[in-house]
Amino acid sequence: MSEQNEIGFISNDPPHRAPGPIGSLHASLLAYTPYRWLAGKLAASGLRVRHLVIAVPYIWLLLFFLAPFLIVFKLSFSEYRIAIPPYAPIFEFIDQTYLQVRLSIDNYRLLFQDSLYIQAYLNSVRVAGISTLLTLLIGYPIAYSMVKARPRTRFILLMLVILPFWTSFLIRVYAWIGILKNEGLLNAFLLKIGLISEPLSLLNTDIAVYIGIVYSYLPFMILPLYANLEKMDMSLIEAATDLGCKPVPAFWKITLPLSLPGIVAGCFLVFIPAVGEFVIPDLLGGPDTLMIGKVLWTEFFNNLDWPLSSAVAVLLLLLLIVPIVLFQRHQQKTAESH
Amino acid sequence: MNHSLHTLFSVSAIALCAISAVHAEDKVVNVYNWSDYIDESTLAEFEEKTGIKVVYDVFDSNEVLETKMLAGGSGYDIVVPTGSFLARQIQAGAFRKLDKDKLPNLENMWQQISDRTAAYDPDNTYSINYMWGTTGIGYNVDMIKERMPDAPLDSWAMIFDPAVISKFKDCGIHILDAPAEIIPTALKYIGEDPDTDDAKVIAKAEETLMVMRENTTKFHSSEYINALANGDICLAVGWSGDVLQARDRAAEAGNDVKVEYVIPKEGALMWFDQMAIPVDAPHPDNAHAFLNFMMDPQIMARNSNYVYYANGNKASQPLLNEDVIGDPAIYPPESTVEQLFTKTPYSPRTQRTVTRMWTRIVSGH
After folding, report:
1. A149 and A15, same structural domain?
2. Set of chain B residues whose Cβ sits within 8 Å of the Cβ of A204
């Protein structure tokens, strides 16, 4: 709540009150000539420093998201040809007078004509969806018990969740080959304790892909859940207990609904990158593991068809943006109704 | 003020130095070659002799190299694509014509190989041969004998005849994930032209390849080296030098695994890795010096002795170890060489059909 007041205060910009953190930063920076010059120029053109601060994320998105997307989008209407770069230009000046624009929709037509692409999309969504559910089922209890732990242990547990990030992602996935292969650690262990008599073939199957994704993305589920649960007001549970509610119903009625924002954030952080995942299915999956990331790779490298792979990427983005926008709307509505 | 003027002067002095240095070409050559494909002591010798530093970088697939070439501005001075990829990149204008006056060692090259590489690079205008090899069958001697004592080891029937390949399904089979090599091989087996660009003819191979797929453990282009050496698989379609590497690793490990390589009697694909200079190479003079050095018979012999691949350098042959020049799997006899076929690149339209067919074979979709 206090954060929101702060932002409101700055944007109202009342002249006679003490400056907020940005205001005081502004004041101290004014001692430097280049900053003073910039601020002066901005003030002359009617802009304020706060505009500049707000503009930073916009410029970031513009440069590193919108611009690359537009390039990919433009490329998706081009055609493959053997040249450097390997696609036909869309805009061409003819006789320095006419601007010729050639847009090919062939790439998009192929995406819908050949069932391969649709199947790969659907399969990726399915694999990502199941993996997200599994990470939630595993991640929630972990985050919950982390919050319940004593502060000292809590810090150690948090470090343990973050620690794997210090090793390369590729090497961690590669290590799973050693664990899952027929003569690997897991099979050796299961054979030794007598649970199985024949080694299980896990590597190069969909199961290996699920294990890889759940393992790699688990921290992305745990961390937002942990952040959310940690801030939760425990007196609500106490009140529920006082009023005679047993722990299990109290969890379902209070903890779970209140942690919904954490669940949703965690699910998005896992689901979105998992849909486009390439490394894990390539290393752990079998020949029939069909995922859109792999199809995109084949189009780009084997067929050298940059335009078609751009079309695949554009469609993938649209596929992911629709649920995000819907979610955003839903969030806004809930916020307004409160 | 005085101070900043001074700074300005020194900065421009440094900039001027940098510009003149670029003009005279830095003493550097950036080489991009296949992984595990050179005796690195030859690089040290080049540096010693010429004073040009070699920045050596490696790749493991033609596709990755091609993407870099066609994106432009790769920064490399020497790259080593395989023939069919080279031909496509030449067409795209990715390479610089060789200045043959700077390459006196060209006289050491083997005419027979140069004639064949001219199919990809007419008159060998843009490239020289580095190594060449074949795509054949690697197998585990004992595991095959145990399952089929009279196995037709010298034939592609091992891979494409359902009655034969199904006998080895249980012990593991790896196939190269390289449609441009496996599809021509299947075409050759069923008696069609392996170099065809006709989609209808190529489609005839699909049935044969499906038989292979049903018995295949994995499609992969490098895992079979270790898998063969460890005895994890009994059969693989792979590159000559790689299978021989597996053979030697198994022998070194002393684990009773005996690996052999065979060029089937129906013929096998012959491929050529060619050294070329990208059109935008920053140090073309150094690149020529490097190419000329690499065509030195002593150097080429050392490289072949190290990587177990045949080279296109005739003068290097007397200097090769007996287990290289005398091995018919590396330097096949004349009668076998006649059976070897080559593959020129597919047209873009056929390329798409071929990749799509391969996806169908590999993934079942």
Report:
1. no
2. 217-218
Q: How many helices (H) and strands (E) does chain B have?
A: 18, 10
Same domain, B143 and B239: yes
- B218 and A204 within 8 Å at the Cβ level: the answer is yes
* Domain contains A270: yes
- Say yes or no: A119 and A58 in one domain: no
Q: How far apart are the first and last CA of chain A?
A: 13
Provide the residue range defining the domain that includes B98: 11-133+272-332
| CA B131/CA B331 separation, integer angstroms | 11
Q: Domain check: are A50 and A192 in the same one?
A: no
Q: Is the dihedral of CA B101, B105, B107, B113 positive or negative?
A: negative
Sequence-ordered list of residues with C-beta below 8 angstroms from that of A53, at least 6 positions apart, any chain = A22
The CATH number assigned to the domain holding B58 equals 3.40.190.10
Mean pLDDT of chain A: 86
The CATH number covering residue A227 comes to: 1.10.3720.10
ipTM here: 0.75
What number of C-beta contacts closer than 8 Å exist between A and B?
Answer: 68
| B197 occurs within a structural domain | yes
Same domain, B71 and B121: yes
Q: How many domains does chain A have?
A: 2
CA distance B320 to chain A (A): 36
pLDDT at residue B200 in the model: 94
Which of A82, A289, A301 is opposite residue B92, by nearest beta carbon?
A: A82
Is B150 contained in some domain? yes
On the CB side of B114, CA atoms within 13 Å amount to 14
**A300 assigned to some structural domain:** yes
Residue of A nearest to B74 (CA): A84
- Residue pLDDT, tens place only, B222-269: 889 988 998 889 999 999 989 998 999 999 988 889 999 999 999 999
- Provide the whole-model pTM: 0.77
Residue showing tokens 């916020």: A335
Q: Which of A75, A78, A79, A82 to mutate to test the interface with B (most CBs of B within 10 A)?
A: A82
Domain match, A175 and A286 both? yes
The three-class DSSP label of residue A93 is: strand
Same structural domain, A125 and A224: yes
Cβ(B134)–Cβ(B339) below 8 Å: no
Return the residue of A nearest to B85 by Cα: A302
- Is the CB of residue B274 less than 8 Å from the CB of residue B290? no
Computed over its alpha carbons, how large is the radius of gyration of chain B?
Answer: 23
Contacts 24+ apart (CB under 8 A), A156-165: A158/A226, A161/A218, A161/A219, A161/A222, A161/A223, A161/A226, A162/A219, A162/A223, A164/A219, A165/A219
Closest-CA residue of chain B to A116: B365
Percent of chain A with pLDDT over 70: 92
State how far the alpha carbon of A291 is from the alpha carbons of A282, A295, A297, B135, B361, in Å: 9, 6, 10, 29, 16
State the pLDDT confidence band at A95, using cuts at 50, 70 and 90.
confident
Cβ atoms of A222 and A161 closer than 8 Å? yes
Using a CB-CB cut-off of 8 Å, the residues of chain B touching A303 are 351-352, 355
Shared domain check, A172 and A51: no
* Rounded CA separation A174/A164 (Å): 14
Residue B3 lies in a domain: no
| Domain extent for A160 | 114-304
Flag whether residue A201 sits within 8 Å of chain B, measured between CB atoms: no
